[in-house]
């Protein structure tokens, strides 16, 4: 495995935007090394997919978001952990570039990378779920496909389909839909939804609501965790829970707000009366907290994209961290998809087709891509976080394009931008 982190992308002025982005990308990778990943230094290959053991040159587009500033570094560290373990098949040579936080910035960074002629494939945490149109002409011009890795908070719209763009996600919206069906049957039909402003515009919220309704449940109230001015509304949530006594609370939040929610719920009277089901990044925050102190009182469940202790061994050891984050897992999986696709040395559109066709055995089980919808097909798990149940898990069925009762058509990227990247 080789990495490039010493040269600018193009011969521009020393303080150009491209140079700053490249240096920021190298800095993100340095953070990954600080997290326990092996060294990223290395020389660029002299030729792509050459004689002997071939090399696949990957341009990695990494976000610089405020909510999760280490997202790009962890994505890169996960990809590196997979590539370091490969002693056969194609080498993966990564050129990491931190692009900022907006889709237009990702596209400009991609264009500059492609103009160098030094990449065979683009990969990264970018927004191509609502419209593939801004990406397709660029990719077709250079005959280079794009592998998008993201959380899957939005369903893919028909406009997102392109033969040049392949999506490999954590399948958050499918997990939310399956969680809704499970909760209506296991906990009861009446739910209160608590949602953070940053999570409310994405499809994993209506996916939960429709999954709940498909099993006979209903959302009786929806509460925002923060007001428009940023003030906390968690006390209002607790009061509503005490007054109405729903069968459970379903919560979505991210970033610092997820930390605040976890701390609030741990000390709230409401937590002693009503079960909580945490989805998305809030589920990750609650699960991490339970490692230190399992919850007391009623049940707390967290939806996560893998089974407990399934990925927390070999992957954790390779990363040098106690518990991999979702971004570690996603980066690891993206590198695995790239490696599997490159085994037969395809280029251009054939490489995109090979990425889409690959069926992976990953730290979260079998992962494949639905050929009809382009969605990631994988099981998610509900983890028990309450005292005496920590480590228990319920497998949720994977959601296929034909089994979501029209959900795939109803949903479809209702908000512009990449979830968690801004």
TrEMBL record:
SUPFAM superfamilies recorded: Periplasmic binding protein-like I (SSF53822)
Keywords, comma-separated and alphabetical: Signal
Top-level lineage group: Bacteria
Membrane-crossing segments per the record: none
Domain Leucine-binding protein: 55-381
One Pfam family linked to the record: Peripla_BP_6
Similarity section: Belongs to the leucine-binding protein family.
Protein name as catalogued: ABC-type branched-subunit amino acid transport system substrate-binding protein
Organism: Acidovorax soli
């Amino acid at each position: 495995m080789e990495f490039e982190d010493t040269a600018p992308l193009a011969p521009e002025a020393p303080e150009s935007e491209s140079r700053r982005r490249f240096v920021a990308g190298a800095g993100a990778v340095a953070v990954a090394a600080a997290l326990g990943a092996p060294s990223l230094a290395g020389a660029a290959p002299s030729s792509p997919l050459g004689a002997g053991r071939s090399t696949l040159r990957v341009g990695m587009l990494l976000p610089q978001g405020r909510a999760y500033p280490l997202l790009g570094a962890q994505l890169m560290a996960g990809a590196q952990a997979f590539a370091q373990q490969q002693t056969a098949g194609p080498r993966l040579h990564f050129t990491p570039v931190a692009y900022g936080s907006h889709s237009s910035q990702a596209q400009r960074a991609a264009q500059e990378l492609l103009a160098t002629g030094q990449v065979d494939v683009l990969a990264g945490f970018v927004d191509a779920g609502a419209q593939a149109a801004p990406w397709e002409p660029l990719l077709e011009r250079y005959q280079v496909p794009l592998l998008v890795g993201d959380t899957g908070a939005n369903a893919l719209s028909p406009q997102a389909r392109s033969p040049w763009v392949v999506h490999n996600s954590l399948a958050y919206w499918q997990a939310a839909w399956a969680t809704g069906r499970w909760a209506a049957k296991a906990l009861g039909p009446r739910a209160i939804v608590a949602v953070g402003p940053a999570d409310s515009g994405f499809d994993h919220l209506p996916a939960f609501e429709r999954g709940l309704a498909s099993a006979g449940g209903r959302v009786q109230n929806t509460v925002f965790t923060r007001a428009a001015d940023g003030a906390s509304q968690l006390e209002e949530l607790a009061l509503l829970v005490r007054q109405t006594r729903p069968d459970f609370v379903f919560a979505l939040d991210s970033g610092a707000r997820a930390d605040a929610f976890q701390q609030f719920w741990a000390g709230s009277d409401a937590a002693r009366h009503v079960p909580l089901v945490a989805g998305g990044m809030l589920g990750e925050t609650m699960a991490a907290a339970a490692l230190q102190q399992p919850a007391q009182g009623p049940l707390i469940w967290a939806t996560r994209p893998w089974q407990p202790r399934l990925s927390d061994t070999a992957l954790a050891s390779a990363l040098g961290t106690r518990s991999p984050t979702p971004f570690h897992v996603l980066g690891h999986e993206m590198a695995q998809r790239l490696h599997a696709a490159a085994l037969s040395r395809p280029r251009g559109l054939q490489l995109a087709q090979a990425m889409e066709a690959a069926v992976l055995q990953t730290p979260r089980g079998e992962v494949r891509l639905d050929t009809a919808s382009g969605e990631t097909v994988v099981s998610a798990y509900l983890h028990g976080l309450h005292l005496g149940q920590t480590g228990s898990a319920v497998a949720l069925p994977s959601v296929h394009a034909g089994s979501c009762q029209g959900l795939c058509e109803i949903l479809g990227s209702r908000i512009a931008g990449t979830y968690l990247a801004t």
